[in-house]
Design a protein that fits this description.
Layout (H helix, E strand, L loop, with lengths): L4 E4 L8 H12 L12 H5 L3 H13 L12 H10 L3 E6 L9 H17 L6 E4 L3 H7 L4 E4 L2 H10 L4 E5 L12 E2 L2 H14 L4
Parallel strand pairs: 1-2, 1-4, 2-3, 4-5, 5-6
Amino acid sequence: MSTFNIGVDIDDVLHPWFSTAHALCELAGITNGVVPKTWRMADEYGCDKDVWVKVLEQATKDGTLYGVPPIPGAVEGLRRLMFAGHRIHLVSARGTAVWQSSAERAEIHRQSYEWIEEYAVPRESVTFDSDKPRVAAELDLDFFIDDGVHNFQDLEQAAPNTQTYLMTAPHNRDFYTPFRVDSMDEFVDLVTEAAEKGVAA
Protein backbone atom coordinates (compact mmCIF):
# COMPACT_ATOMS: atom_id res chain seq x y z
CA MET A 1 0.00 0.00 0.00
CA SER A 2 1.28 3.48 -0.90
CA THR A 3 1.57 6.33 1.57
CA PHE A 4 1.08 9.95 0.62
CA ASN A 5 1.89 13.53 1.56
CA ILE A 6 -1.46 15.18 2.21
CA GLY A 7 -2.18 18.90 2.44
CA VAL A 8 -5.09 19.88 4.65
CA ASP A 9 -6.60 23.35 4.97
CA ILE A 10 -7.74 24.29 8.49
CA ASP A 11 -10.70 26.66 8.20
CA ASP A 12 -13.94 24.96 7.14
CA VAL A 13 -12.11 21.68 6.65
CA LEU A 14 -11.13 21.12 10.28
CA HIS A 15 -12.31 24.27 12.07
CA PRO A 16 -15.83 25.72 11.55
CA TRP A 17 -14.64 29.24 10.77
CA PHE A 18 -17.49 30.35 8.48
CA SER A 19 -20.35 29.36 10.79
CA THR A 20 -18.50 30.63 13.87
CA ALA A 21 -17.78 34.01 12.27
CA HIS A 22 -21.41 34.32 11.19
CA ALA A 23 -22.68 33.48 14.67
CA LEU A 24 -20.41 36.14 16.15
CA CYS A 25 -21.63 38.66 13.59
CA GLU A 26 -25.20 37.82 14.56
CA LEU A 27 -24.37 38.46 18.20
CA ALA A 28 -22.85 41.79 17.19
CA GLY A 29 -26.07 42.71 15.35
CA ILE A 30 -24.50 43.41 11.97
CA THR A 31 -26.06 40.69 9.77
CA ASN A 32 -29.43 42.33 8.99
CA GLY A 33 -30.93 38.84 9.13
CA VAL A 34 -28.80 37.60 6.23
CA VAL A 35 -27.16 34.17 6.18
CA PRO A 36 -24.10 34.59 3.92
CA LYS A 37 -23.37 32.26 1.02
CA THR A 38 -19.94 33.64 0.04
CA TRP A 39 -16.76 34.86 1.72
CA ARG A 40 -17.96 38.42 1.07
CA MET A 41 -19.84 38.44 4.37
CA ALA A 42 -19.83 42.20 4.91
CA ASP A 43 -21.22 42.82 1.42
CA GLU A 44 -24.00 40.28 1.97
CA TYR A 45 -24.82 41.71 5.39
CA GLY A 46 -24.94 45.21 3.90
CA CYS A 47 -22.59 46.53 6.55
CA ASP A 48 -19.35 48.48 6.31
CA LYS A 49 -16.36 46.15 5.96
CA ASP A 50 -14.56 47.99 8.76
CA VAL A 51 -17.41 47.11 11.11
CA TRP A 52 -17.16 43.43 10.12
CA VAL A 53 -13.38 43.48 10.53
CA LYS A 54 -13.71 44.93 14.03
CA VAL A 55 -16.08 42.15 15.05
CA LEU A 56 -13.53 39.59 13.89
CA GLU A 57 -10.67 41.45 15.56
CA GLN A 58 -12.51 41.42 18.89
CA ALA A 59 -13.39 37.74 18.46
CA THR A 60 -9.71 37.04 17.84
CA LYS A 61 -8.68 38.93 20.98
CA ASP A 62 -11.16 37.12 23.22
CA GLY A 63 -10.60 33.69 21.63
CA THR A 64 -14.19 33.13 20.52
CA LEU A 65 -13.36 32.84 16.81
CA TYR A 66 -10.42 30.44 16.82
CA GLY A 67 -11.04 28.53 20.04
CA VAL A 68 -14.15 26.53 19.10
CA PRO A 69 -14.05 22.71 18.74
CA PRO A 70 -13.25 21.09 15.39
CA ILE A 71 -15.89 20.05 12.87
CA PRO A 72 -17.24 16.70 14.10
CA GLY A 73 -15.29 13.79 12.62
CA ALA A 74 -12.62 15.94 10.96
CA VAL A 75 -9.73 15.27 13.33
CA GLU A 76 -10.74 11.62 13.68
CA GLY A 77 -10.50 11.32 9.90
CA LEU A 78 -6.99 12.72 9.92
CA ARG A 79 -6.03 10.20 12.57
CA ARG A 80 -7.18 7.41 10.26
CA LEU A 81 -4.81 8.77 7.63
CA MET A 82 -1.96 9.11 10.13
CA PHE A 83 -2.41 5.57 11.44
CA ALA A 84 -2.29 4.33 7.83
CA GLY A 85 1.16 5.92 7.46
CA HIS A 86 0.25 9.05 5.50
CA ARG A 87 1.99 12.34 6.25
CA ILE A 88 -0.35 15.23 7.01
CA HIS A 89 0.66 18.84 6.38
CA LEU A 90 -1.64 21.60 7.62
CA VAL A 91 -1.63 24.49 5.14
CA SER A 92 -3.68 27.58 5.99
CA ALA A 93 -3.95 31.18 4.83
CA ARG A 94 -4.83 32.25 8.37
CA GLY A 95 -3.16 35.47 9.36
CA THR A 96 -2.27 36.50 5.82
CA ALA A 97 -5.07 39.02 5.13
CA VAL A 98 -3.79 42.44 4.07
CA TRP A 99 -6.08 44.20 6.55
CA GLN A 100 -4.65 42.32 9.53
CA SER A 101 -1.94 43.96 11.62
CA SER A 102 1.28 42.08 12.36
CA ALA A 103 0.18 41.77 15.99
CA GLU A 104 -3.17 40.25 14.98
CA ARG A 105 -1.47 37.84 12.59
CA ALA A 106 0.86 36.71 15.35
CA GLU A 107 -2.08 36.22 17.72
CA ILE A 108 -4.01 34.19 15.13
CA HIS A 109 -1.01 31.93 14.62
CA ARG A 110 -0.47 31.57 18.36
CA GLN A 111 -4.10 30.57 18.90
CA SER A 112 -3.93 28.23 15.92
CA TYR A 113 -0.99 26.32 17.36
CA GLU A 114 -2.77 26.13 20.72
CA TRP A 115 -5.89 24.78 18.99
CA ILE A 116 -3.87 22.17 17.10
CA GLU A 117 -2.27 21.02 20.36
CA GLU A 118 -5.50 21.09 22.36
CA TYR A 119 -7.36 18.90 19.88
CA ALA A 120 -4.34 16.73 19.02
CA VAL A 121 -4.61 17.41 15.30
CA PRO A 122 -2.23 15.04 13.45
CA ARG A 123 0.43 16.84 11.41
CA GLU A 124 3.95 16.61 10.07
CA SER A 125 4.09 20.36 9.54
CA VAL A 126 2.06 23.56 9.81
CA THR A 127 2.37 26.29 7.18
CA PHE A 128 0.61 29.66 7.12
CA ASP A 129 0.70 30.89 3.52
CA SER A 130 -1.84 32.06 0.95
CA ASP A 131 0.21 30.64 -1.98
CA LYS A 132 -0.96 27.07 -1.64
CA PRO A 133 0.32 25.81 -5.03
CA ARG A 134 3.83 26.87 -4.04
CA VAL A 135 3.49 25.10 -0.69
CA ALA A 136 2.11 22.01 -2.43
CA ALA A 137 5.18 21.90 -4.66
CA GLU A 138 7.62 22.49 -1.80
CA LEU A 139 6.06 19.74 0.32
CA ASP A 140 5.57 17.42 -2.68
CA LEU A 141 1.91 16.95 -1.80
CA ASP A 142 0.01 14.09 -3.43
CA PHE A 143 -3.40 15.23 -2.17
CA PHE A 144 -4.89 18.48 -0.92
CA ILE A 145 -8.28 19.29 0.58
CA ASP A 146 -9.55 22.87 0.78
CA ASP A 147 -12.87 24.67 1.01
CA GLY A 148 -11.91 27.78 -0.96
CA VAL A 149 -12.86 27.74 -4.63
CA HIS A 150 -9.99 30.12 -5.46
CA ASN A 151 -7.52 27.79 -3.71
CA PHE A 152 -9.01 24.75 -5.42
CA GLN A 153 -8.70 26.38 -8.85
CA ASP A 154 -5.18 27.65 -8.16
CA LEU A 155 -4.06 24.19 -7.04
CA GLU A 156 -5.66 22.50 -10.05
CA GLN A 157 -3.92 24.89 -12.43
CA ALA A 158 -0.55 25.42 -10.75
CA ALA A 159 -0.06 22.15 -8.85
CA PRO A 160 -1.08 19.47 -11.38
CA ASN A 161 0.80 16.75 -9.49
CA THR A 162 -1.43 17.29 -6.47
CA GLN A 163 -4.91 15.76 -6.57
CA THR A 164 -7.08 18.43 -4.97
CA TYR A 165 -10.54 18.00 -3.48
CA LEU A 166 -13.06 20.68 -2.53
CA MET A 167 -14.73 20.31 0.87
CA THR A 168 -18.38 21.32 0.60
CA ALA A 169 -19.21 24.49 2.52
CA PRO A 170 -21.97 27.13 2.32
CA HIS A 171 -19.72 29.48 0.36
CA ASN A 172 -18.84 27.00 -2.43
CA ARG A 173 -22.07 25.12 -3.13
CA ASP A 174 -22.62 26.93 -6.45
CA PHE A 175 -19.27 25.79 -7.84
CA TYR A 176 -19.26 22.55 -9.82
CA THR A 177 -16.43 20.07 -9.69
CA PRO A 178 -16.41 16.27 -9.73
CA PHE A 179 -13.66 16.50 -7.09
CA ARG A 180 -15.97 17.50 -4.26
CA VAL A 181 -16.36 15.78 -0.90
CA ASP A 182 -18.98 16.37 1.78
CA SER A 183 -16.98 15.15 4.77
CA MET A 184 -13.50 14.27 5.94
CA ASP A 185 -14.52 10.60 6.01
CA GLU A 186 -15.32 10.78 2.29
CA PHE A 187 -11.91 12.30 1.59
CA VAL A 188 -10.16 9.68 3.75
CA ASP A 189 -11.94 6.89 1.85
CA LEU A 190 -10.73 8.32 -1.48
CA VAL A 191 -7.15 8.55 -0.25
CA THR A 192 -7.36 5.04 1.16
CA GLU A 193 -8.63 3.70 -2.16
CA ALA A 194 -5.80 5.43 -4.00
CA ALA A 195 -3.28 4.03 -1.51
CA GLU A 196 -4.55 0.52 -2.12
CA LYS A 197 -4.16 1.04 -5.88
CA GLY A 198 -0.75 2.65 -5.42
CA VAL A 199 -1.62 5.88 -7.25
CA ALA A 200 -2.51 9.39 -6.08
CA ALA A 201 -4.65 10.48 -9.00
